[in-house]
Design goal:
Number of strands: 3
CATH architecture of the domain at 72-175: 2-Layer Sandwich
Order of helices and strands: HHHEEHHHHE
Radius of gyration: 38 Å
Distance between the termini: 111 Å
Length: about 180
Amino acid sequence: MADQKPRADEKKDAAESAPAPAKTGGRKIMLIIGGIMLLEGAGIFGAMKLVGAGPGSSHADELTLATQPSKRSIEIEVVRVRTPNDKEGKLILWSLEVVIRVPADQQQSVADMIKANSGTIKDRIARLIRAASPEHLREPGLETLRRQMRFELGRVLEDESKILEVLIPDCTPYPTGF
């Protein structure tokens, strides 16, 4: 009878009488891992405080000085144009005045080049306005138009470095076709 297999009932009785495994180790392990992670974070923070050089210096101070106009510069009126733009789906006539700031020692040569190329300058400025998107024409500082005009005027004057700053004192929209 020793060779006989135990019955299914006996197996059930043996399983019920055996004690269940304890689950106390899972919570302890999680607490230990959490504590180790906190210690590791504190160690990295402390090491960075000791080794770190602190905040670096900013280069923005130098840039603000570069955008201020020079004391030895002259303003020259380049052009006054009225150009249509229909990019919003309706025709708007834009009245525009463009002035550039140039070094005082180059005033005469720049003024002569502007006078000699006045048609080309008017055409390029008008083309910029006709092709400009409404967002660019409505920017508070007209930065995009200033940058594009500086590039185009630099090509006409054969040297963009002659232009210290592009000024747009008048940029007025006049709706048409009510």
